[in-house]
Design brief:
By secondary structure, the chain is an alpha/beta fold. It contains 25 helices and 30 strands. The strands form six sheets. It has a seven-stranded mixed β-sheet, with helices on both faces. Strand 6, helix 7 and strand 7 form a beta-alpha-beta unit. Helix 4 packs parallel to helix 5, helix 8 packs across helix 10 and helix 22 crosses helix 24. The chain is globular, with a radius of gyration of 27 Å.
């Protein structure tokens, strides 16, 4: 690292610390020292070695060598190392070696989002061109094909046909295109698939929940098709730091993997500030961004919403007109050419700063930035480190600010910084055995290649009940002998969305019929009921009508000073207990649940202070779905102890439910919205009070299954979250949930603290900020 940059960052830190306003916001400061590189030796083709040397790569880091050796050994490999640790070389070197050895060899690169392929395809083509591995150019071709080509939704139909017909060496695509345009039309790709040697699946930590569960079947269908054409490609997967890279890769692809997780890449020193501003975190972010740029530092600001991205940009520019040409906002919704322009200007240093949503979290190389400003905890440790990895990419020192929102997890880390720096990363959870998802993909698989009793990818015998259901529904047709099944519909893939479960509802503008968005079935009654205010790209819309038959929510533009919050009633039925876990004298159960949820009304609440302005009744049909979840009953002794101390039983259970859901993303890569909960002062089937926490998707996706595995750590984190919050009676930073279907009533923070301490058998929740409790 240059002395000038060190002086710049250190000088900037000293200047900020001297500012009383800034100093009073500091909840924690840490310095993570630099890490030296570890190198290893490996034999490379002389031509490739020479090309790499021209790129400035004279040695490989130890994890790169370990991974390449495992790939040469024939293993499916998953590599989990930090950002900027040279993962692309790990997959490019074996691919290039296969091209040098076999002129017919092919490779397929898959990225989770459209647009992430651009940098990678450019880098690979540069290496292939230097090695003379370019395709022959046809006569009078204005835009000749390169050895590696992007094949996604932005590729023109004409160029797509050229790519297929010319059997391009390497294809860069995404799982959506694989699902809709490659797997269903595999006959057009026959020559490519016959020679397919490697499939690269990058950023696998992005394949979580619904998306990952669907993608797992898209990859299984690809493997079936490859077997049909006689190929058996190796899979090379790469991930950011997560708790379970091997398990995730194996669940995603359906094959055994070898994991490489010890990084040999160097890392620069990192200065960390946790800031807890008394005022707006957004104005503080804009202020810090201006000061960084004025100090000559290059910065990126990450926000949690598109609207906030635009607001911080406008505030920063309004206070300093000269910054307008130096910074840009960046978010989903921009045209591809706009995004690429911003990326290239950042890479070339023409821009000094950018304000982005998660859109810049993955994949794109935007050059050497110095400062990362996180406006709100990103929701997971893995995502946080991904965003932090955008700065200090060339092993130079970097500066990170985490500015807390009034959110439960943000405030948890402000009070427990050791939990952030010492915490293991979350697990990514998917469930390829989810019956709802399987019923969507089995007809797709049968449409591509008939489904047989001896299928080597799908265990047909185990899936027979689901296949019988599909036959009864007319989605599959059995052969005469009963050991083969065909699709009943042409191109069933078109009706299957891989980023949601179930058929989505369209959000449609009344009058014009223009579709402005869509919503999962699981969310539509809570977010698009008649009268709801629906937000899309910062614009307010009022929902006028919900058409259940046509699966449409009609709306019109609105400009109001309130938001709407659904009021719900739920019924929980335990269908089967499948597992349990004991903590001291308490038994927590896990199994299959049937949830019946009904939206019975909604509140209008003030946009700025959340005050309830009015309440409105609704009559909507109930949504019923089966899922996975866990539950715990409250014994008579505990019930009596709660009552004797003057705590509200229902409020205590309700507060624990909210806080536990808020803390689950500490251990599982999920959002709070992926999890549901309900608490009963008396649950008749158990003849006791009970708390239920469940996966918010049909069939379940494994979130609460993971919660059972980390039960004690999860409950301890929940106790700390509540007990160390300085509020008096509960707030959004501990037990309140802005999406609560009963309007956060009743809630009893003290009773929740008592209940958690009793379960855990120790006073976990007490600490330097805790207040004196009633009845103790």
């Amino acid at each position: 690292m240059s002395a000038s940059l060190r002086q710049g960052i250190n000088g900037f830190i000293q200047a900020q610390r001297a500012d009383l306003r800034f100093a009073q916001q500091i909840a924690e400061y840490r310095y993570l020292p630099p890490v030296a590189a570890k190198y290893a030796e490996i034999a490379l083709d002389g031509r490739l070695k020479e090309v790499l040397a021209k790129e400035g790569i004279a040695q490989l880091w130890s994890h790169q060598v370990d991974a390449i050796k495992a790939i040469r050994n024939g293993d499916h490999v998953v590599v989990m190392t930090p950002t900027a640790s040279g993962k692309s070389l790990i997959y490019n070197i074996p691919v290039i070696e296969s091209f040098l050895e076999d002129e017919a060899a092919k490779a397929l690169y898959i990225f989770p989002l459209k647009g992430l392929e651009q940098d990678q395809v450019k880098n690979l083509n540069r290496l292939l061109s230097t090695l003379g591995l370019e395709p022959e150019k046809g006569p009078r071709e204005r835009t000749p094909l390169q050895a590696a080509e992007v094949y996604d939704g932005d590729t023109t139909a004409f160029r797509r046909k050229k790519i297929r017909d010319r059997s391009t060496r390497a294809i860069f695509t995404n799982p959506d295109m694989l699902h809709l345009a490659i797997n269903p039309f595999h006959a057009l790709w026959a020559e490519f698939l016959k020679q397919l040697k490697y499939v690269v699946v990058d950023e696998i930590h992005a394949y979580r929940g619904v998306f990952g569960t669907n993608a797992a079947h898209v990859f299984r269908r690809l493997r079936r098709i490859c077997r049909y054409y006689g190929s058996n490609p190796q899979f090379i997967a790469c991930s950011a730091t997560i708790a379970n890279p091997k398990e995730l890769a194996e669940r995603l692809i359906g094959a055994p993997f070898r994991a490489i997780t010890e990084s040999g890449a160097p890392q620069g020193g990192k200065h960390f500030f946790f800031l807890n501003p008394p005022g707006s975190p957004y104005t503080e972010a804009a202020r810090l961004l201006r000061h960084c740029l004025e100090a000559g530092l290059r910065a990126i600001v990450f926000t949690k919403a598109r609207k906030i991205t635009e607001l911080i940009y406008s505030w920063a520019v309004a206070r300093a007109d000269d910054l307008a040409a130096k910074i840009r906002p960046y978010r989903a919704g921009f045209l591809p050419r706009e995004r690429r322009e911003i990326e290239q200007k950042l890479f070339r240093g023409e821009l000094r700063g950018v304000i982005s949503t998660s859109a810049l979290e993955l994949g794109v190389d935007i050059g050497g930035l110095d400062v990362c400003i996180l406006v709100g905890y990103p929701g997971s440790i893995a995502s946080t480190w991904q965003r932090i990895g955008r700065v200090g990419r060339h092993a130079q020192e970097s500066l990170i600010f985490l500015i807390a929102l009034r959110d439960a997890l943000d405030q948890y880390f402000m009070r427990h910084p050791d939990a952030f720096f010492g915490k293991s990363h979350e697990a990514v959870v998917i469930d390829p055995n989810n019956p709802t998802v399987l019923k969507k993909h089995l007809p797709c698989a049968a449409a591509e290649i008939s489904l047989r009793a001896d299928d080597q990818i799908y265990e047909v015998q185990a899936l027979q009940p689901l296949i019988d259901d599909l036959v009864a529904a007319g989605d599959l047709h059995p052969g005469k002998r009963g050991d083969i099944w065909f699709t009943a519909r042409r191109r069933p893939q078109r009706t299957v969305g891989i980023r949601s479960i179930g058929d989505p509802f369209s959000i449609v503008l009344e009058g014009t019929g223009e579709t402005i968005g869509d919503l999962d079935t699981s969310r539509v009654f809570r977010e698009a009921f008649p009268g709801a205010i629906y937000l899309h790209q910062g614009q307010q819309y009022r929902v006028i009508k919900l058409d259940l038959e046509r699966r449409r929510a009609y709306c019109k533009p609105a400009a109001v000073q309130y938001y709407t919050q659904a009021l719900t009633e739920e019924e929980t039925q335990i269908l089967a207990e499948q597992d349990s876990r004991r903590i001291r004298d308490w038994l927590i159960h896990w199994g299959c649940l049937r949830m019946t949820r009904r939206v019975v009304g909604y509140d209008k609440r003030g946009l700025f202070d959340g005050t309830r302005l009015s309440r409105h009744a609704l009559e909507l049909p109930a949504s019923v779905f089966e899922t996975e979840g866990l539950w715990i009953g409250i014994d008579p002794e505990t019930r009596a102890a709660i009552a004797s101390r003057g705590y509200d039983l229902g409020g205590s259970l309700h507060a624990v439910e909210h806080a536990a859901i808020s803390c689950l993303p500490l251990f599982v890569l999920c959002d709070k919205g992926d999890i549901g909960g309900y608490s009963y002062p008396l649950y008749p089937p158990l003849a006791s009070p009970a708390i239920f926490i469940y996966d918010g998707y049909e069939g379940g996706l494994g979130f609460t299954r993971r919660a059972l595995e980390v039960l004690e750590d999860w409950l301890r984190a929940t106790a700390r979250l509540i007990g160390r919050c300085p509020c008096e009676e509960g707030c959004p930073a501990c037990v309140q949930d802005p999406q609560c279907g009963s309007g956060n009533k009743p809630l009893d923070k003290d009773g929740a603290i008592f209940l958690l301490d009793r379960w855990l058998g120790e006073q976990i929740s007490s600490g330097p900020i805790t207040r004196e409790r009633r009845g103790s």
